[in-house]
Amino acid sequence: MSGAVAREAVAAPSREVAAAARTRLDALATPLGAWGRLGELAVWYAACSGSARPTGPERVRVVVLAGDHGVAQHGVSAYPAAVTPAMVRTVLAGGAGVAVLGRSLGATVRVLDIAVDDDLAGVPADVQRYKVRRSSGSIDREDACSAAEIAAALAAGAEIAAEEIDAGADLLVLGDLGIGNTTPAAVLIGAQLGLDAATVTGRGTGIDDPGLERKTEVIGAALARVRGRAADPVDLLAAAGGADFAAGVGFLAAAARHGVPVLLDGVIAVAQALTAQRLQPGAVHWWAAGHRSTEPAQSAALQALGLEPLLDLGMRLGEGTGALAAVPLLRSATAVLSGMSLLSDLDL
Ligand SMILES: O=C(O)c1ccc[n+]([C@@H]2O[C@H](COP(=O)([O-])O)[C@@H](O)[C@H]2O)c1
Ligand SMILES: Cc1cc2nc[nH]c2cc1C
């Protein structure tokens, strides 16, 4: 047992329901296999929801975990760290991408300050209820945070997931916010998959060529510094992740333990998923990948997890937006599986 997350396999979505859903899919009034991956998506959601004729998801709940990162001081982002608290306020005001997309889909959006480097004066107290610390150590030269902070953040993430599930979620989306966070995401993925800095480094918010060179160096230094610590995913989170990453890991592992499906977002959520799957083997069966981020580390991690993204739109916003963009596809998939006539109903 490490922190709040047990290292034991989680129960898989119902195999019986999956088999019944597949039987129904194959019997629909279409040529066999005609729905392609949309049909596979419907079978996945059916198994997760426990019904071979699922509806929805209707109660989509998004949680955006915000945190700053010490590495941002090394010019690894195209934007200043002040954007993080400003965007937390923009999510709360309803003007952020995730807020607008969430509203258009009838999803709730909750933003939480886990490690923002600001006191966020005046925001509702609930937003900071799970705050662990301000920012993180610069991972190229020091640990992101302590083992105790990681334990607190893992437990916070699990509690946040439980709250969203208690509130009735039939689909969860995990989003992120934090200038510099594509750097620890790349390090977590590189360290766990044994990939080098050049392979996992991407342009994040859109850094230029000198910035990309700097970022690759920082990621290389961090990978060298944490070498040997990937064997213990909880220790790796302290070394190279941070409190917001640990909260995401706790959230994803808890969603799987509670048997609630999650649509994954970009490189940050997928770095958290790769880590959570090691702590809670089998959790991956409760997740689907919403979209392919432009970050190369996300593709590497998705491949390692055996997940194929539903969308590939060149998006790189984070906040959970790439996952939300796939919600209409998921709703289409369940509508088709549950609502279509069967081939046997045809007057042939
Ligand atoms: O989700 C992604 O794959 C993704 C890719 C690039 C950027 N982001 C977002 O942009 C911020 C991190 O980018 P950066 O360049 O500051 O590391 C952070 O707020 C993320 O939500 C997110
Ligand atoms: C404006 C802005 C909004 C974001 N949302 C998530 N990451 C972000 C980064 C920036 C710079």
Q: Would you mind describing this structure in some detail?
A:
There is one protein chain. The protein is an alpha/beta fold and 348 residues long. Strands 2-1-3-4-5 form a 5-stranded parallel beta sheet, sandwiched between helices. The protein contains 14 helices and 5 strands. The N terminus is likely disordered. The protein has 2 domains: 53 residues, 5,6-Dimethylbenzimidazole Phosphoribosyltransferase, Chain: A, domain 1; 269 residues, Nicotinate-nucleotide-dimethylbenzimidazole phosphoribosyltransferase (CobT), large domain (Rossmann fold). The structure holds nicotinate mononucleotide and 5,6-dimethylbenzimidazole. 5,6-dimethylbenzimidazole (DMD) binds next to helix 3. Catalyzes the synthesis of alpha-ribazole-5'-phosphate from nicotinate mononucleotide (NAMN) and 5,6-dimethylbenzimidazole (DMB). Its EC number is 2.4.2.21.
Q: Tell me the CATH architecture of the largest domain.
A: 3-Layer(aba) Sandwich
Mean pLDDT: 97
Shape: globular
Count of DSSP E strands? 5
Q: How do the helices and strands follow one another from N- to C-terminus? A: HHEHHEHEHHHHHEHEHHH
Features:
single chain; 348 residues; alpha/beta; 5,6-Dimethylbenzimidazole Phosphoribosyltransferase, Chain: A, domain 1; Rossmann fold; 2 domains; 47% helix; disordered N terminus; binds nicotinate mononucleotide; binds 5,6-dimethylbenzimidazole
Summarize the structure.
One of its GO terms (biological process) is cobalamin biosynthetic process. The chain contains 14 helices and 5 strands.
